[in-house]
Amino acid sequence: MPSALFSPIKLRGLELANRVVLSPLCQFMAKDGTAQPWHFMNAYHYAVSGAGLIILEATGVEDVGRITPGCLGLYSDENEAALTQLIKGIRSYSNTPVGIQLSHAGRKASTRPTWELHKGNNVSIEDGGWDVTGPTTEPFGEGWPTPIYLDEQGLTRVLDSFVQSTRRAQRCGFDMIEVHVAHGYLLHQFVSPMSNKRTDKYGGSLENRMRFPLEVIAAMRAAFPAEKPIGVRITGRDFNEGGLELEDAVIFARELQKLGIDYVTPSAGNVAPGMKIPPVSPGYMVPFAERVKQDVPGMNAMAVGLIVLPEQANEIIASGKADMVAIGRAFMDDPRWAWHAATALGDTPAIPPAWNRANPKVWPAYPMVHGQSREMAEGMGHARRE
Ligand SMILES: Cc1cc2nc3c(=O)[nH]c(=O)nc-3n(C[C@H](O)[C@H](O)[C@H](O)COP(=O)(O)O)c2cc1C
């Protein structure tokens, strides 16, 4: 019997060999939205990581929808050609399902990568930035640019961009799509009362604020093959007074379920300055996923946020708190995280034949290299399975 973490799960026609998912991680290394050798290197090693699914980074559906000038896009033929090559390369040696997160940064677009924030948040037009768009003309915060209001025509353009990128993702050969409705980017800007002060049918009540994201997602669902899943990264809580709360996340998840969405990943925050995030601890957002699972029967939930140890991840799945776990920084730190997790949990690590000499079964030094896992696990209150 495999552990809960390494048991398979089916999302529509897509079989995941296990519940370990590479969380989307921006690389800020693209040129004009097009994947570079860095992206190939990055995706290629995760494709042999043993994860059940890898999801590529937030990818702009139009050029002005990129978070930074270095973010991936899927709005041009060049963008599409590079990602088609990337998937083709992976398919020559791995069956690991590969998804892409489609996104629009809205009023938080045209910013700098994290390692350049000392120069300021925003990239000016002279420096290669662009005018940003938003649900209203209210900037993200002091010193941030004033967004261009998305009128009916603007909304149609954005919706159409999501649909076109969906079609491109299908042509590239992606197995699934995740829609980004979190972290303060455009679709989250619509859902949250912190950022959506519109007075038309897209603002006001939660029903109105969800309307545009739901229209976008419905149109994407109609444009993507029925056997391929679409998931949505949502907001569990804004952590701002007067912002989105878990009750809103549950209502949104119910609406997404009606559209045939296959899972939600409740994350948090970053829609407005002044976020009051409690001290973060391991698995601090797991209760969001748990609540969605409880209140929206039949909807799969992916847990994310400081899930770092195999035993911790396994407990989340085994106890029914979530159906999948998204692993971010722990995967960056250890791109073979899922091999090591499988070994720690008594499962078989998915090591490709060419690297099998590093398999713990035949490599006597393995316990010496990975021996510290027990102390770490105990320190975090999780017993290691023998
Ligand atoms: C460098 C970096 C880039 C990220 N890029 C994205 C992204 O493209 N899309 C997204 O939804 N979340 C992104 N995140 C958030 C992660 O997917 C994840 O939710 C977060 O890091 C918490 O999980 P962790 O504790 O396992 O890292 C990023 C996080 C980091 C550290």
Enumerate the strands of the largest sheet in spatial order, edge to edge or round the barrel.
3-4-5-8-9-10-11-12
Structural class of the helix and strand makeup? Answer: alpha/beta
Categorize the overall geometry: globular
How many domain units?
A: 1
Ligands and ions found? flavin mononucleotide
Let me know the number of strands.
12
Query: At the fourth CATH level, what is the homologous superfamily?
Result: Aldolase class I
Helix and strand topology:
Blueprint: E1 9-11, E2 14-16, E3 20-22, H1 37-46, E4 53-60, H2 77-91, E5 98-103, E6 133-134, E7 148-149, H3 152-172, E8 176-180, H4 186-191, H5 206-223, E9 230-237, H6 246-258, E10 263-268, H7 286-295, E11 300-304, H8 310-318, E12 324-327, H9 329-333, H10 337-344, H11 366-370, H12 373-379
Helix pairs in contact: 2-3, 3-5, 5-6, 6-7
The chain binds flavin mononucleotide (FMN).
Flavin mononucleotide (FMN) binds at residues 23-26, 57-58, 101, 180, 182-183, 233, 267, 304-307, 327-330.
